[in-house]
Write a structure and sequence with these properties.
It contains eight helices and no strands. By secondary structure, the chain is an all-alpha fold. It has one domain.
Length: 203
């Protein structure tokens, strides 16, 4: 991959992973509720889940979705419903010491699987796989994209979990932590609006 394309890819990965979205809202809430250490499996699940998506999309799944546009619409509907459910779980999380609908942080496998119903993850990985891979260098380029997404993306999402731990020290009262999580849930719902409006426009 040419160096200028590699720089553009790295910039794309950093911007895509550091900007607000469902993953980062959940990491911020998890860091505040459970701490950085207990959120580590969640972070690595996001990273590996996105890498798997890039590999599969780069090696053919994107063309299948292109031939079956209804499949993407169905995914959008299912993912929106699931993210609304996760927003409810975040809003009702009371923290490690309280009764909670979400008494444990998201596990590695759950975080990895979640990427398949995360509209931003789809947009990011599909965009990377189609924009930065060349048909005559597909295997090598897809591998480079996967590596770039990990190297650039993991530190970015760690910033959000770390930010949650800073917030945690400020939210010493359970009622404050609950209010924070309700706010994070609301932001998660807001992050879904562009996708919902796009879906409504196609209907």
């Amino acid at each position: 991959m040419p160096i200028d394309t590699l720089i553009a890819l790295a910039t794309f990965c950093i911007v895509s992973t550091v900007t607000p979205g469902p993953n980062n809202m959940m990491l911020l809430s998890s860091g505040a509720t459970f701490g950085f250490r207990r959120t580590i499996p969640h972070m690595f699940g996001i990273s590996i889940g996105c890498v798997v998506m890039v590999l599969l999309l780069g090696f053919g799944l994107a063309s299948v979705i292109g031939r079956l546009p209804w499949l993407y619409t169905l995914l959008h509907i299912v993912s929106t419903a699931y993210l609304l459910y996760l927003a409810w779980r975040i809003a009702t999380s009371a923290g490690p010491g309280g009764a909670s609908a979400r008494g444990e942080p998201l596990s590695f496998l759950h975080a990895a699987a979640f990427q398949w119903v995360n509209p931003k993850a789809w947009a990011m990985t599909l965009g990377a796989a189609t924009s930065f891979s060349r048909p005559d260098h597909l295997a090598g380029d897809v591998a480079v994209i996967a590596i770039a997404l990990t190297v650039c993306g993991l530190p970015c999402i760690m910033l959000w979990a770390g930010g949650g731990t800073v917030v945690r020290r400020l939210l010493t009262r359970p009622v404050m932590l609950r209010a924070f999580n309700v706010g994070m849930a609301a932001l998660l719902v807001v992050s879904l609006l562009p996708g919902v409006l796009e879906l409504a426009g196609k209907a």
